[in-house]
Structure formats: structure tokens, C-alpha cells
């Protein structure tokens, strides 16, 4: 097996501008007290390869619900998701995209370019 067949995983490092965007929009939707920075972990993540090409931010939506027993990590064989979080996750992703695109459009308009 040749090393080039399996390249080493780069570090997953969030772009600071995108990170601030997620923090701001997440706070607008969920309240800033509900937007938290996760602990750093030593693990491989395919997303890091995308970040080598384009700035990005990796984030998660909180899914823990102790009343339902949804307390296990996604890599656990006991994992299951509290499906009530799915509309919240969809709303966060939608708002992130809509606000980002709106702000990019406004930025282009301020510079005097037509879109």
C-alpha cells in the first residue's frame, strides 16, 4: 500500500469570517446563549479537504435530549436522533445561506457593480 493512495488528513480549521457568520446568525435564531464553541478533538475529518480549497466552517446542531435518551454520540451504536431538532437544523442552515447571499449581494451593490 502506497502512502500517496491514502493522504494524511489535514487539520480541520474553521475560517474566522465564516465562524463569526455562524455565531451571529445562530445567535439571531437561537439566542446567543445557545451558540457554543465545541471542544477541540483529535480526529480525522473529510471536511478538512474541502477547507484546503475553499474557506469553510464546520459546525453541529445540538441534538442531546436526556428525556428521550438521545445522549449518545453519532459514532455510538446506541445513537439516535431526537427528530424535533431537524426543523431547527434546517432553519439554521437556511438562514446561514440566505443571510450570507444577501450580504454578498449588498456588498457587490455598494461597490457599484450590477448583479
From TrEMBL:
InterPro entries: Amidohydrolase, Peptidase_M20. The lineage of its organism: Eukaryota, Viridiplantae, Streptophyta, Embryophyta, Tracheophyta. The keyword Transmembrane helix does not apply. PANTHER family: IAA-AMINO ACID HYDROLASE ILR1-LIKE 3 (PTHR11014:SF140), PEPTIDASE M20 FAMILY MEMBER (PTHR11014). This is Iaa-amino acid hydrolase ilr1-like. One of its GO terms (molecular function) is hydrolase activity. Transmembrane segments: none annotated. Pfam families: Peptidase_M20. Keywords: Hydrolase.
